[in-house]
Amino acid sequence: MADQLAIGSRRGLKPALPLLLPAYLWLTVAIFLPLSAMVFFSFMTDLPLAGKDWAFTLGNYAAFFSQGLYATLMLASLRLGLEVTLWCIVIGYPAAYVLAKVLKGRSREAIFLLVILPFWSNGLVRIFSWAMVLREGGILDTALNAVLPFKINIDLMYSYPAVIIGLVHSYVPYMVLTCYLTLQAIDDSLIEAGRSLGASRRQVLWRVIIPLSMPGLIAGAALIFVPVVGSFMEPRILGGRTGTFYGTVIEDQFVAVFNWPLGAALSFILLAVVLIILALAAPVLRRAG
Amino acid sequence: MAGVQVANVSRSFGAHKALDDVSIDFADGGFYALLGPSGSGKTTLLRQIAGFDFPDSGRIAIGGESVERVPVEKRRIGMVFQNYALFPNMSVADNVAFGLSVRGEAKATIAAEVQRALDLVQLGKLGARKPHQLSGGQRQRVALARAIVTKPRVLLLDEPLGALDKALRVDMQIELKRIQREIGITTIFVTHDQEEALTMSDRIGILRDGRLVQEGPPEEIYDRPQSEFAATFLGDANIFRGNATGNGILLADGTTIAAAVGDRLVPGAKASCAVRPERIQISTGVVKPDTGNANSLKGQVSKRIFAGNNSTYFVDRDGQTLKVIVQNTGAERLAEGEPVVLSWSPDSTVLIAA
Ligand SMILES: Nc1ncnc2c1ncn2[C@@H]1O[C@H](COP(=O)(O)OP(=O)(O)OP(=O)(O)O)[C@@H](O)[C@H]1O
Ligand SMILES: [Mg+2]
Fold first, then answer.
1. Strand partners, B16
2. From the CA of A289, how many Å to the nearest CA of chain B?
3. Angle at A259 (CA atoms; ends A40, A271), nearest 5 degrees
């Protein structure tokens, strides 16, 4: 990686500028402008809409620190992000491995399609179909009771596990894709070389394959962790009363309470926390990779 | 150390027979070259011995023990891959240390062994580098050090010098041979460079379409090829086709060619004779009877290629182009179009059943 960058910079950035320009223009318009508006809002007492009075304040940020609730919810959301990311690794990595190294040809394409499917279905449809599966008297409950000789009551709806299940389902394709790409790039002869040197399959996995697929794991984890910490749709629909997280509170500020400045401030605090976590994790992960 | 016995091994991929009843005895401590055109099954054979792939039928034994049920990591082999297969995330030293560290050897032992192996391949100072910071030849030596540091019983090399330029290749050939002698390890070396096979190995096996065509010491294969394929694949050969007589063949135009090497054949059977280009003498006059060159043919020089210490003449004779290699001793050279007489001894003529 580092030496590739070095080669790039030696040739100079100038020839690349025309190629980068559209991307930067787009980023400026689509992300930078709205984001700066939000930064602006987050320092206001009220929205400058409908002729209301407003003034600059740090109060929105102070609110986070003065009320313990926000910090508690932040921790709950971070834990949610961590758990979902871990489940995505546990489920997604083996799937990616099988796709990249075991399956060949047609069956690979078919399984790949199945993995990608959640991407193509609408988020709300996905979540509501889980609601139908998980509720009491729902598909899972009925199916299990039809198979099992004794009566059990499965009502996962409106619970923490339901939120986890919904989120993992939505985000696991990211992990499969990023890991698939890095695993795909690992030459089979490296695995064979490891075996010929006396390493068992398990040792090859831990010492060769996992270290080499670390970039994919990290990319997948970042792609999952960040949006999950701020997620609100799955917690709200599948979690019910237990589904109050940092993301749902932010959403409330924007759609229910109409306190945009507080919502914006809470968002930026989340952004800062996530960035700090990623920055702290970077050196550790870089060493592992 | 141990020898490797391959007995009646066959392996098919679908309808394609990649190995067809191959039997070779690789002697303990020997340097064995497997030679053959692309797709002839060389890599497939190595993979059966290594245990990456399994034969449909036949047996493989290492050190006298059948390895049918022995997984790769228990076979105690060292393998150098065509693309080196160094672990890109590890330093050179860690690459070499891998085999010892998965065995759970002590850190100090590992460090000492790794240093010794790196010194052996003359890379003692480069242990801290990553593989991508090495040249092709250095990478190949790291792969070799990594393969031998675990003291394997057998060293398998799959065209390890394929990616190197000529000069580096020759250096590496010498070095590989030196290391092999030093540790006396049974080595099976896949190549499709015939010169490499001839100069390096104790024995050569020639594969074609999954079958073992011929097997033996380099001199024997070169001097007594048993098929036209072996004759032309290992070195150059002029081939004459005709019918067997008591001691040679009779060509269609009535010329007889006497052969003193090779099997006796039933007179009248289809047969061919092979003559190495450097065994033929070329002259403008008549051949003196005392040279013992009982075989002679008339022809016309069609082309001469100068190659420094020798010249190759292409001589047309009755629709056939013969190749003659002559040392450049400073004597007169023959012009293109000049009529010449080719002569050679029956001792240089190999009779081959068609
Ligand atoms: N996994 C496989 N699936 C299908 N066919 C295979 C497989 N491995 C090898 N083959 C076929 O078996 C034959 C022998 O292949 P092999 O790799 O042993 O050739 P080789 O002698 O090593 O050739 P080269 O000099 O090009 O490396 C080839 O025709 C190849 O296409
Ligand atoms: Mg090959």
1. B13
2. 8
3. 55
Q: Does A116 map to a domain?
A: yes
For residue B262, which of B349, B178, B181 has the smallest C-alpha distance? B349
Count of the separate structural domains present in chain A: 1
CATH code for residues B4-223 = 3.40.50.300
ipTM: 0.81
Domain range B236-353, its CATH number among 3.20.20.100, 3.40.50.2000, 2.40.50.100, 1.10.287.1770: 2.40.50.100
Over residues A129-169, the pLDDT tens digits come to 888 888 877 788 888 888 888 887 777 778 899 999 999 99
Tens digits of per-residue pLDDT, B29-83? 999 999 999 999 999 999 999 999 999 999 999 999 999 889 999 999 999 998 8
Q: Which two tokens stand for residue A14?
A: 């100038």
Neighbours of A187 (CB within 10 A): 13
Cβ separation A195–B52 shorter than 8 A: yes
So where are chain B's domains? 4-223, 236-353
pTM for this one? Answer: 0.81
* CB within 8 Å: A192 and B72: yes
B72 vs A187, A189, A195: nearest CB? A195
Option in B51, B85, B132 nearest A193 (CB)? B85
Domain that holds residue A185: 64-288
Q: Is A212 on the interface with B (CB under 8 A)?
A: yes
